[in-house]
Write a structure and sequence with these properties.
Two copies of one chain form a homodimer.
Chain A (H helix, E strand, L loop, with lengths): L9 H13 L5 H12 L5 H14 L2 E5 L12 E5 L1 H18 L9
Antiparallel strand pairs in A: 1-2
Chain A binds a DNA duplex (30 and 30 nucleotides) through helix 1 and helix 3.
DNA sequence: TCCATTTCCTCTACTTTGTATAATAAATAA
DNA sequence: TTATTTATTATACAAAGTAGAGGAAATGGA
């Protein structure tokens, strides 16, 4: 067993990992910065939400709207979190990649 | 530095790794079996070639047709191999994933 | 010879993911 | 009550993922 006929797209994969890292404070702007800071990925905010929403539809994440904050422009944020199914898929994806990387050697000069 | 504005898709990633594993003997049917055996991925042969050809166009792989073999139906095979650019991208992809996985914990019960 | 069979590759059309831009919404400060 | 700020939503298009049918090259036996 392994595959299960459903895979995480490349960007989906990164997004789920960003959510895992950020924990309870995962909302659009923060997620975006996380990706930028950690792997220099410049995702537009629209790209981000579109993908997150698709994953919500598929049951890999859930979202909920929080309270507004007291700062200027501090409207309520939408927080995302990874579901059990999302985590399962993450785990599977990681395992598959580890298997495929097994024995593969990439030389220094690259 | 990191991103570079070009990423490996999920399937592209797996295919490049399959080529690395198979080395000089990477042709359609074998690659397909490699994916099936290692990660239980059932890719149609059409899906496989389409993706390989797109990657060739992008410069991540090259291909060349070999000699027919003496067996029944042993027509010439088309062999694929990963280019230096493909390897560079593989390496970058791996690094990015390692960074994103950093500190992420997935519990047993999944 | 020529047709059935085998192995392998090509074509093509469609779905899903990745992506950016523009628009909208809610909040606060003046 | 409007300008500004933070944040999300809508929409449209390009790229990647995918399957299925069809074509090509080889061999073995009528």
């Amino acid at each position: 067993m392994s595959d299960k006929n459903s895979h995480l797209g490349e960007f989906e994969h990164l997004l789920l990992l960003a959510l895992m890292q950020l924990g309870g404070k995962s909302h659009g702007t923060l997620i975006r910065h996380n990706l930028k800071d950690l792997v220099n990925r410049d995702a537009s905010i629209g790209a981000l939400y579109a993908t997150l929403e698709r994953m919500e539809k598929k049951g890999y994440v859930t979202s909920s709207v929080g309270e507004p904050t007291a700062e200027r422009g501090g409207r309520a944020k939408r927080y995302f979190e990874v579901t059990a199914e999302g985590k399962k898929l993450l785990k599977q994806t990681k395992k598959n990649l580890e298997v495929m990387w097994q024995g593969v050697q990439l030389w220094q000069n690259l």
